[in-house]
Amino acid sequence: MEATKTRHSGSPADRQRASNPPKNEQVVAAKIMVLATNLRRSGTLLYARALNLSTHEWPIIGSIGMSGATSLRELADRLGLDKGLASREVSSLVRRGLLLKERPSKEVRIRLSPAGEEMMQRVAILSAEREDFLLADMTEKERDVFIQHLEKIGARAKTLLEQVNAEPDED
What we know:
Elements: H1 5-9, H2 12-19, H3 28-51, H4 57-67, H5 72-79, H6 83-95, E1 99-102, E2 109-112, H7 114-134, H8 140-166
Antiparallel strand pairs: 1-2
């Protein structure tokens, strides 16, 4: 794998990196993980208090609301959820009247119900308020550049995941 070849090569540059670990401000992945954790936790509290949506329910509503009808497998993959957990959360949202399951062909499709569409609008309003708060200290140009960088990092992270998944286990 391209992204991890250097850690196995034992080159002088690798030995130099190993003997001089990166400074805290250089550990990008760790900072992104902390950011993601803080955003997920604040979102979970916000959506639970304001909309009575659980940790996994609000991302499901948001994902389907933004992407349209989907299969359970696509939804679980998109959100990084175990298929069993995704199934239980979807069933709960169906019982609450926020999602509908349809079988237009062999595969069941999940979409927002009218009540789910209303909930999506409420989620979108709260999300926009959170985003405005998070980006309040940036100019419009800084916001644009930041989003471009996020998209680039996101694409590279996806490629990295695909590469790691393609590697055989070393066991």
